[in-house]
What does this fold into?
Amino acid sequence: MAGKLYLCATPIGNLEDITLRVLRVLKEVDLIAAEDTRNSIRLLNHFGIKTPMTSYHEHNKVDKAYQLVEKLRAGKDIALITDAGTPGISDPGEDLVRICDEAGIEVTSLPGAAACITALTMSGQKTRRFAFEAFLPRDKKMRSEILQEMAEETRTLIVYEAPHHLLKTLKELHEALGERSVTICRELTKRYEEKQKMTLGEALSYYEINEPKGEFVLVIEGKSHEEIRKEAEKSWEDMPIEEHMALYESKGYDRKTAMKAVANDRGISKRDVYQSLFV
It folds into this structure.
């Protein structure tokens, strides 16, 4: 009978945030696959866990995944842990899960700490709809494309960043998104945890003077519907009424209905549209 893969969430800072279930599973499985065994051994030693470990990280994620699947097929139960937080969130765990699915291996996830959710819930930004961007790609073209997409996103945005890249990322976000509200969370659950809510421009000015320290989560306001409405109004104003009418008529609107739609778009009366076209 095949074994099971357990995705075990570990603390993002405060060791008290590990669950009793995760502690039990880490003791009971046959093997723990860790992103960095040197980091994870401190966690295991703290809780008196003696289970053998093996490394599973970005640089061996595919070859090692198949090795782990063979162990699972042989009946071994394996726990996957990341350096901090929930495996599969912005780390190579997603590749192992995919390969296990393809091999018919059972996978379960043990809930626990995740920096993105921790930051979102304490941010003061809207939480009903959000988009998790994790670390922006380093590739220039991909990064530019994603920033363009983010500029049009109406959901709250969540971005991870390291201290030595924070200033560059804030500059690019400010250029792409404008003066949005952002909550900057630093060193979550740790002794010097900090939350600052400001605009992207204010954040940029602050970190130009103050050296960034610790790991950061940026929770950014999405594009407002008011902003979208104003942009639409501006675009209609820039378009001649004849073109505006032609746009609706090309969609099959009759002249009367098209005139009504144009009037609604521009916030004017149908009489004004008529006079612009025929008087």
The longest strand covers residues 130-135. The chain has a mean pLDDT of 92.
